[in-house]
């Protein structure tokens, strides 16, 4: 069972995704998390603290994902592309947290902190890909492919008919082998 703190963060994510940062109040988060407002304030003393908790959650999930990228049996690029694609199953709820933080990035109050956190998440993934790929441009290219797939995941856009992630990976392997050799 999730802790009260996690329920609050889960509720905050949901409200951000469904209604945007401007519409989210502490009362609404407490109600959605099934905790009293005092219970919410025990964990997060303000709306800024709540946003900070969400950013911490994304950084934690990103660090775990970067470690998974580095230790993936089939390699960093394959892991990054597969888990970025629709249905790829990024572990630990990172997709929802990332999407919620994107909603915060548009907010004038917590927007800069959210953008800084998103940049750190991006840097984590790039560094993990660089561990596998010697060429920084190829690592960035692999990241951009994964990011494009991740955008499809976030927006619910399916892959083109008749094309799959394994087809993409096969072509990328050949391309990367030619450029990373």
TrEMBL record:
<dbReference type="Pfam" id="PF00440">
    <property type="entry name" value="TetR_N"/>
</dbReference>
<dbReference type="InterPro" id="IPR009057">
    <property type="entry name" value="Homeodomain-like_sf"/>
</dbReference>
<dbReference type="InterPro" id="IPR001647">
    <property type="entry name" value="HTH_TetR"/>
</dbReference>
<keyword id="KW-0805">Transcription regulation</keyword>
<keyword id="KW-0804">Transcription</keyword>
<keyword id="KW-0238">DNA-binding</keyword>
<feature type="domain" description="HTH tetR-type">
    <location>
        <begin position="2"/>
        <end position="62"/>
    </location>
</feature>
<feature type="DNA-binding region" description="H-T-H motif">
    <location>
        <begin position="25"/>
        <end position="44"/>
    </location>
</feature>
<dbReference type="InterPro" id="IPR050109">
    <property type="entry name" value="HTH-type_TetR-like_transc_reg"/>
</dbReference>
<protein>
    <submittedName>
        <fullName>TetR/AcrR family transcriptional regulator</fullName>
    </submittedName>
</protein>
């Amino acid at each position: 069972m999730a802790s009260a703190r996690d329920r609050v963060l889960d509720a905050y994510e949901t409200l951000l995704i469904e209604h945007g940062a401007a519409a989210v109040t502490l009362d609404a988060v407490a109600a959605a998390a099934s905790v009293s407002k005092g219970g919410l304030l025990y964990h997060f003393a303000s709306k800024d603290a709540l946003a900070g908790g969400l950013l911490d959650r994304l950084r934690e999930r990103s660090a775990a994902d970067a470690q998974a990228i580095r230790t993936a049996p089939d390699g960093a690029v394959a892991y990054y592309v597969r888990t970025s694609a629709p249905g790829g199953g990024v572990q630990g709820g990172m997709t929802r947290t990332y999407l919620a933080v994107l909603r915060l990035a548009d907010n004038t109050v917590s927007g800069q902190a959210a953008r800084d956190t998103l940049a750190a998440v991006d840097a984590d993934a790039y560094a993990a890909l660089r561990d596998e790929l010697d060429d920084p441009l190829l690592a960035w290219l692999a990241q951009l492919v994964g990011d494009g797939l991740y955008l499809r995941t976030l927006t619910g856009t399916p892959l083109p008919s008749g094309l799959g992630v394994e087809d993409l990976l096969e072509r990328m392997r050949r391309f990367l082998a030619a450029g990373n050799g």
